[in-house]
Design goal:
Layout (H helix, E strand, L loop, with lengths): L12 H7 L4 E6 L6 H14 L5 E6 L7 H13 L4 E4 L8 H9 L4 E4 L13 E4 L2 H16 L2 E8 L5 H17 L1 E9 L4 H14 L3 E6 L2 H13 L7 E5 L3 H9 L4 E5 L1 H16 L7 E3 L2 E5 L6 H4 L4
Parallel strand pairs: 1-2, 1-3, 3-4, 4-5, 5-11, 6-7, 6-8, 8-9, 9-10
Antiparallel strand pairs: 10-12
Helix pairs in contact: 2-10, 3-4, 5-6, 7-8
InterPro entries: Peripla_BP_I, SBP_2_dom
Protein name: Monosaccharide ABC transporter substrate-binding protein, CUT2 family
Family: Belongs to the bacterial solute-binding protein 2 family.
Length: 313
């Protein structure tokens, strides 16, 4: 269990653990299956159960991150079929809270990954695993200031408004720029995690703001669409572009210079440590209530280093 079996459980968890099943299906439910980021979570989940036969892992998610009702249904279905545990990346902090409470009432331990549930629901899940999204947003902002300077316009290309990861990541990026520079923020604009939408939005923004000095794409599909728009406009290398996440498309954009950098989360670690955490709960062990899965700012200079290769996918 590495370093995660160290801290006391929060109020209410010990009673749940005693009634939970000790073996069986662990349902990993993510925001969408149509993303390399979430597929990498699946790989981590598979790694967590390798070499043992007590548990199996199922992997599912809706067709898009904005299909919140579909994700709620997937969690309900998992509860109804009596899974042993759930690892969940909630697409909406409010909409997923009632079904997580229902899992708790059914004695099914839950690990939340990537994005938090709405405040007040902490008693219904056992641990939260995520990048420190606020710290990641601030790191991206400082990287922007270092490269673009302290004055000018920076466009913020976000994904789904109100999602926990977006609130921390984009909010802290914007707040950090406001406190530490005179950079003017254009946006944020919301792609709904659709690459084509981000491409079209970025194309329009580049045309309307020829004086941009920087642009930030806050998740994988948004950053890919942003990067492609920059390339199509012939502006690669002419402004400081920073992405988020680390699939092959974004790696190529860093290598070509379209992106100065991309902030890469430990998506594999979310799946691996999330499944390990709920297996620990099922075994009666204690786990930390927050597990930081980390972030690495990947640039052309460090992309081939072990620290970057360990998080790229």
């Amino acid at each position: 269990m590495k370093n995660i079996v160290t801290a006391a459980l929060t109020t209410g968890i010990i009673g749940l653990t005693a009634s939970a099943a000790t073996a069986g299906e662990i349902a990993v439910i993510v925001k969408t299956t149509n993303s390399n980021f979430w597929q990498n979570v699946s790989k981590g989940a598979d790694a967590a159960i390798a070499g043992q036969s007590a548990h199996t892992v199922s992997f599912n998610g809706p067709a898009s991150e904005s299909a919140v009702a579909d994700q709620v249904s997937l969690v309900e279905n998992a509860i109804n079929r009596g899974v042993s545990a759930i690892v969940l990346a909630p697409s909406d902090p409010e909409a997923l809270a009632p079904v997580v409470k229902r899992a708790f009432e059914a004695g099914i331990p839950v690990a939340i990954i990537d994005s938090m549930l709405a405040a007040g629901n902490e008693a219904y899940y056992q641990t939260f695993l995520s990048t420190d999204n606020c710290a990641a947003g601030e790191l991206a902002a400082q990287t922007m200031i270092d490269a673009a300077g302290s004055t000018g316009k920076v466009a913020v290309m976000s994904y789904v408004a109100g999602v926990g990861s977006e609130i921390g990541r984009v909010g802290c990026f914007s707040d950090y720029l406001a406190k530490n520079s005179d950079l003017e923020i254009v946006g944020p604009f919301y792609s709904q995690s659709q690459m084509a939408t981000a491409l079209n939005q970025t194309t329009d923004i580049l045309a309307a703001n020829t004086d941009l000095v920087g642009i930030f794409g806050a998740n994988e599909p948004t950053a890919i669409g942003m990067g492609r728009a920059i390339e199509q406009a012939g502006k690669a290398g002419q402004l400081t572009a920073i992405g988020f996440d680390g699939n092959a498309d974004l790696q190529d954009m860093v290598k070509s210079g379209t992106l100065l950098a991309t902030a890469v989360q430990g998506s594999f670690q979310m799946g691996e440590l999330g499944v390990q955490a709920v297996m620990g709960v099922l075994a009666g062990e204690t786990i930390e209530t927050f597990i930081d899965t980390g972030v690495v700012m990947v640039t052309k200079d460090n992309i081939d280093s072990p620290v970057a290769q360990n998080v790229l996918y």
